[in-house]
């Protein structure tokens, strides 16, 4: 062995003298991870600048060897891979559910728009320096680079707010949720139920049976749409965002000229937005409610006429 070393030493010296650098990095792969504070780059362990984790970036080159730039984070976010076997350097924590080291909470979390917040972690509570998310659960909101796809529909299972596809949605009790007061604050195909947007038809929308409609409403087989009865003499007993039409059905509370103006109707839900179904001659037609002449198009004297117990613009 000693004789072999004596033969090799001159050859090594010649390589160094000739300017050929020796690659003395520790080899690494999935079965042989690098030490904490190092990253596996092209099969070799290299030291990383741990202080750069969580820095703003526009490309991986700005973060240094072994780090990547999470462009899905506001302003970019220097990330380092981690796993159960590959830990994170001091000053960062491993969010194993997303497989990345994130900047730890504390004095280093001073980036504008970032704060200490919860991150996904099946092993227990974990916090890190993450983007502020007003009105959300404070989870990582970093797009694909942070393990977030933003493809989960309302009511679907989620780990954090950025998993949800709907703008403004939060991840509440493990499901994507959007707060609301009326149906009209919810995306198409959903309605407001107990202050949350949930899938299902609204009043006036198609249904197959009563169970598809909101509580205390019904699905008449002859019309197959969700309807709610009311009594205009008792004030507005309809759900928020609706009002009681003269023919005792709840319709959207709005003002303006209905698109269905003058069309024949069975009840006010046939009149779509802002219209009511009232007599006009011998038939029922969609008309525009009013209180004064100036509420009607043109505002001419006599435009607003009395029709039974209510007032509507002349057709």
Structure commentary:
The structure is a single chain. This protein is mainly beta and 315 residues long. Among the domains are: 25-147, no CATH class; 255-313, no CATH class. It is built from one helix and 18 strands. It has a four-stranded antiparallel beta sheet, with no helix packed on it. A two-stranded antiparallel ribbon has the order 1-2. It is elongated, with a radius of gyration of 33 Å. It starts with a helix and ends with a strand.
Portion in strands: 15-25%
- The value of Rg in angstroms is 33 Å
- Cα distance, first to last residue? 109 Å
For the biggest β-sheet, the strand order reads: 3-4-6-5
Any chance you could write out the topology, listing elements then pairs?
Elements: H1 2-17, E1 38-41, E2 44-47, E3 68-69, E4 78-81, E5 92-95, E6 100-103, E7 114-118, E8 127-131, E9 170-172, E10 175-177, E11 190-193, E12 196-199, E13 242-244, E14 250-252, E15 276-280, E16 283-287, E17 304-307, E18 310-313
Antiparallel strand pairs: 1-2, 3-4, 4-6, 5-6, 7-8, 9-10, 11-12, 13-14, 15-16, 17-18
List key phrases describing it.
single chain; 315 residues; mainly beta; four-stranded antiparallel β-sheet; two-stranded antiparallel ribbon; 1 helix; 5% helix; disordered N terminus
